[in-house]
Design brief:
By secondary structure, this protein is α/β, with parallel strands linked by helices. It has 8 helices and 11 strands. Helix content is 41%, strand content 21%. The strands form 3 sheets. Strands 2-1-3-4-5 form a 5-stranded parallel sheet, sandwiched between helices. Strands 6-7-8-9 form a 4-stranded antiparallel sheet, with helices on one face. Strands 10-11 form a two-stranded antiparallel ribbon. Helix 2 runs parallel beside helix 3, helix 3 packs parallel to helix 4 and helix 6 packs across helix 8.
């Protein structure tokens, strides 16, 4: 999943970016409101973490501009302690959630997961497809009750397919949401990782869950 972080305090931005990347998210960072707005309009994002107090354009203006343009990417606002008016204005402007600084990183993660669920059909932290279980909080994956070890990239790919379960995702979608394009322009990388995943998720089971849709992409689903 791909997240935009708009935060002008560079040390804080760096720490949050590192933490999110360790969780397998692809993270874009903007250090002012104008850059944030540009990225939010341009990149295929799954969520935005948006500070309110920003140089060049404040977070509430960024948010209202996005919403006026019909860009409905889920947004978590970062507000200063006790800035009740900001919170109210933020929610009225179309923020999906807010978090008061300073915050515990685990809480940011939990709120991001909650937003990602809201924009998909997934309702719980554990995503289940047939006998496959993906715990999006702990990143533990099981099939038929047996733990499966995945690398961070394999997990990120499986989680993306799982949030979109029952829907076809194209190689381009996968590259844009799971890998930074500049790192992996070649969409063959996707096929390679899909093969790794199949070896771990499907190989030992007669009931396959990862399906190729010729000319379109991949789908994670229960039926054959
Ligand atoms: Ca700030």
């Amino acid at each position: 999943m791909r997240i935009l972080l708009v935060e002008d305090e560079k040390d804080l931005a760096y720490i949050i970016k590192q933490g999110l990347e360790e969780e397998g998210y692809v993270v874009d960072v903007a250090h002012d409101g104008e850059e944030g707005l540009y990225m939010a309009e341009t990149f295929p994002l799954d969520a935005i973490v948006l500070d309110i107090m920003l140089p060049l354009m404040d977070g509430l203006t960024v948010l209202s501009t996005l919403r006026k343009k019909g860009i409905m990417t889920p947004v978590i606002l970062l507000t200063a302690r006790d800035a009740l008016l900001d919170k109210i204005k933020g929610l009225d402007t179309g923020a999906d959630d807010y978090l008061t600084k300073p915050f515990v990183f685990e809480e940011l993660l939990a709120r991001i997961r909650s937003l990602l669920r809201r924009k998909t059909t997934v309702k719980e932290a554990i995503i289940r497809i047939a006998d496959l279980e993906i715990d999006t909080a702990s990143h533990e994956v099981k099939r038929g009750g047996k733990p499966i070890n995945l690398s961070a990239r394999e997990y990120a790919l499986l989680e993306y397919l799982a949030y979109e379960k029952g829907k076809v995702v194209s190689r381009t979608d996968i590259v844009e949401h799971i890998y930074h394009e500049e790192a992996d322009m070649d969409s063959n990388v996707v096929d390679v990782y899909i093969n790794y995943l199949r070896n771990k998720i499907d190989k030992d089971f007669s009931h396959k869950l990862i399906h190729t849709v010729r000319g379109a992409g991949y789908i994670l689903k229960d039926e054959e």
